[in-house]
Amino acid sequence: xxxxxxxPRSDDFETVDGVKLPSYRGDNINGDTFNLKSRQPDPQRMxxxxxxxxxxxxxxxxxxxxxxxxxxxxxxxxxxxxSNSEQGEKYMELAxxxxxxxxxxxxxxxxxxxxxxxxxxxxxxxxxxxxxxxxAMTREDSxxxxxxxxxxxxxxxxxxxxxxxxxxxxxxxxVANPLGLKASDKMDPAxxxxxxxxxxxxxxxxRMTIIVRMGAEKLRLKLPHLIRAVRQAGLIVTWVSDPxxxxxxxxxxxxxxxxxxxxxxxxxAFFDVHEEEGSHPGGVHLEMTGQNVTECIGGSRVVxxxxxxxxxxxxxxxxxxxxQSLELAFIIAERLRRGRMNKAxxxxxxxxxxxxxx
Length: 358
Known about the structure:
Helices cover about 40% and strands about 10% of the residues. The chain has helices at about 35-40, 45-65, 85-105, 115-120, 130-135, 165-170, 190-200, 215-230, 260-275, 320-355; strands at about 15, 20, 125, 140, 145-150, 155, 180-185, 210, 240, 250, 255, 280-285. The strands form 4 sheets. A 6-stranded parallel β-sheet has the order 3-6-7-8-9-12. The N and C termini lie far apart (about 55 Å).
């Protein structure tokens, strides 16, 4: 959130109609337009990116503390184009239940004027990729003597830059921010343990988040080995699923897209594996927008390959639209609800067995 505007690329160059130019690497490095002038790196772009990020944060801060985040506005958060969908109907049903709960709380004396009811907190995170930008934003805390990268609350290191002797790992081990580590199917369990030990030598709770991105089938094969290695090493980590980046494909039109079904299947696999391993799924990383874009295919309001060009607005990665995001949110919520119910049933059964033995 608030953007770092840097984009890792697999190829240094891009060729279109026989013309070869440097790849687009994000708005704080060069431009998306396919010409030589646009693709030249420009340091002033980092300054503009900082100003854009600051403006975005200020807007979110105003919404978060100015009353827009008030729970009594939950019905107003819905978007017009989801109101006639199955997800929109589920959302409105949930919103009305929240309204009923708020009415009960108000009757108990917790009024809507209470700060917890009309404001919220937020945190920002992005990939630590462009080190000159990150270094310029790093400051020493005068009270603790610790160094923090002030470009975000949490930073993560990506698949292409997590080398044990690389500059990105060296930079991140020196800052006190919470850190994330992207782990694909290429991640070796022993290497994962080593990276965690370098970035979090004191095994501080909350310091390390492992963000898994593999695709559903590979995740079912690979993730159990990573979980076991981390557990055996005694490391304290948070496991997060990123079902977006392992499911990017190229459509016949040449546009990048992500199938909704593949995203959903990887999420299901993530929860299944943690349930089987007795570990805890700690979060989900999604790329989404509130706009009615056509960038990811599928979903209950089906976006087809032919639909992609109609509202394909991203310059970077394909995003879920609001309807697809709500659909995934309800799928996750239902999975969590079933998990709580199963634990409650198991607890009651254990209690009854205990009473029977008395």
